[in-house]
Write a structure and sequence with these properties.
The protein contains 8 helices and no strands. The protein has about 190 residues and is mainly α.
Length: about 190
């Protein structure tokens, strides 16, 4: 590598993004820090300035994607003025986030270490569902019913995200409107 080719503004994030592409194409087993460095065009030592080893890299990727996903859901909630429709808006953002970032979906949900009850985006989603149900819809549901409702809503948007981002079943010019129609017709 020539010294004058190094021009990365945020090497850590670029390593993560290129790593996701590499994992999607070749699998996590074939990823090495050396191959990652090559993909980004930096020295083989450069990734170690950010990640101790491959496992630390994979943990950082999961954290990076989770943070972006959480921020997208939070942004949807923060920008929704209608507190009753906030669940719908979060659901649409969930699906669109993974439509726009299918590598993120594949990485997060094919790695077996996402524990839903401890997963920040799910915890946030659950808090919004609880708030809407108790304060705006007026149902005052018991904890178990709220938990089941949250799981059903999450499963709906999760499945829709997979269908749209991975399998490409829904093909439309106005994807966000189509997602809204699907979610509304199923109770979101």
């Amino acid at each position: 590598m020539k010294a004058d080719t190094y021009h990365h503004g945020n090497l850590k994030n670029e390593l993560i993004e290129k790593g996701l592409e590499y994992i999607d194409r070749y699998g996590v087993e074939s990823l090495s820090m050396r191959k990652l460095a090559e993909a980004v065009g930096v020295s083989s030592a450069a990734p170690y300035a950010h990640f101790k080893n491959k496992e630390a890299f994979l943990d950082a990727v999961q954290e990076y994607v989770t943070d972006k996903f959480y921020d997208a859901l939070k942004d949807a909630a923060d920008n929704c003025k209608d507190k009753i429709k906030v669940i719908l808006e979060i659901g649409k953002r969930y699906v669109m986030f993974f439509h726009d970032n299918p590598l993120y979906y594949h990485f997060l949900f094919t790695r077996s270490n996402v524990k839903l009850n401890e997963y920040p985006p799910f915890i946030f989603f659950e808090s919004v569902v609880t708030d809407v149900m108790n304060n705006y819809v007026g149902k005052n549901l018991d904890k178990e019913t709220l938990r089941l409702k949250t799981i059903a809503l999450w499963a709906m948007v999760h499945g829709l995200a997979q269908i749209i981002s991975i399998e490409g079943v829904v093909d439309t010019d106005n994807l966000e409107k189509e997602i809204e129609k699907i979610l509304v017709s199923n109770g979101a």
